[in-house]
Amino acid sequence: MRPFARLAGALTILAALAATATAQPRITVTFPAARSSTPLDGRLLVYFHTDTTGDPRLQVSDNAATAQVFGVDVDGWRPGTPQVVDASAFGYPLQSLRELKPGRYRVQAMINRYQTFTRSDGHTVKLPPDRGEGQQMTQKPGNLFSRAATVTVAANSAIRLELDQEIPPVGDFAQKETKYVKYVKIRSELLSRFWGTDMYLAAWVLLPEGFDSHPQARYPLVINHGHFPSSLGGWREAPPDADLKPDYSTRFSLAGYNRIQQELAHQFYKDWTGPGFPRMLLIEIQHPTPFYDDSYAVNSANNGPYGDAIMRELVPEIERHFRGLGQGWARFTYGGSTGGWEAMAVQMFYPQDFNGAWIACPDPIDFRHYTVVDIYKDKNAYFIEGPFKRVARPGQRNYLGHISTTLEQSNHRELALGTNSRSGDQWDVWESVYSPVGANGYPKPIWDKRTGVIDPEVAAYWKEHYDLSHILQRDWRTLGPQLKGKLRIYVGDMDNYYLNNAVYEVEKFLKQADPPADAVVDYGDRDEHCWNGDHTRSNAYSRLRYPQMVLPWALERILTTAPAGADIRSWRY
To answer: What is the DSSP code string of 187-228?
Structure first.
């Protein structure tokens, strides 16, 4: 009988080991009725970090030192009812709680609350509305979170968290107005009709020196496109703070970069109000969508008619209120990164409404180089695959080419933060702008978020609607004459996100375009994101001087291209 006894013992040991291997932490989260008496919809997120200070919810990133996050969708979650987060929750960088090593962690939970939208296209979707914070879920008013706590995690740990904290409302933007800076907010009829609820657009307007003392003057308008501005960017009326504690910019290897930013923002104020500076209206637009901190300034199937709302509702209202000239020859646009793509797109999609676009480090303007992916030829976005080898595609680099994350890792971070393109981050926003609407009412993915397998039908849709390089070439016979001399594109040849690769393709076409494009395309040697055309200063400084570069060029174009009889004098004082 001894052999059987030994066998029984071995089986007992194996069973115990199997139980240990499948055991996992169990996390339950609740919220009190005092925080919400009604059920919640949203994305419940649980964070872990080995850092013993700070809030883990603020420490998720593409960097190696990122916090860990697990996410689950919740619908109709009632106060006091436990919500379980277990190994089925998708995580980043570890995909499952089973992979979380035993040890001491700082832990925290948060819910990104969703609102139900019944759109005019017939789809009902649940998305996080912007609440004045610019679609930043960790800063979104009304989102609930727990206090960060230190816990010991073991195979069978039971962790209980309560969302008893709430992010407060943002302040009134109008309180930031000054003699020069004004805030305008309008209800958009176009967007409200599409989303089935009141939707708004807003803008910061920088008035020229002498605006009040020259009541007969009417002004050109320049749009600085980019991410959600909570104030007018790069503008400071007061000198730098005397007691400002210097920080350190790892990106630029500069000590005291915060003071440099304040100094150049104040210098802009002095230039703007000084003699000889072009007298124009300069605006920055707030156009967050339920998907992202801005709409990319174009019409799209998932976001609605943001392009038309900006150009046909907001801009005319600003020009009416602040004495704009209101003509295409007197409008210009510029921006970097997201703003660079937007500047090029609106110049192309509204060619007669602008007289020039200064386009810096634009998001991919040729989808054969959608960063490092050719969405038309590649089968998989995450890997280069051969018969015996699989190589991960890079997602971000520095000026030396050192990689900090892969494309798969960046996309998995977004998937943990939100399903159905609801992370509020970069890859998801591109889907929300460029993709057709899927059967479920959300953007149809360009690739499977888990595996990276590309959908060629979605790629074909992207090509015809938002591949700016393809559209330029397809429509150049009619579009070319309207864009002559208007395009100026700048990018560093070591852009962190490989955005220079798409610019190379556009440059090839513009050089041989017929009729001639008279475009400018220039590269910064070894410059990272977001080089903007200044060869005399480092990127750390030039990125803080857009208006001083763009507005003199706008003035020059006006004086050489304005139609006969145009007002080119009332605002030149």
So the answer is: E-HHHHHHHTS--EEEEEEEPPTTTTT-TT--B-EEEEE-SP
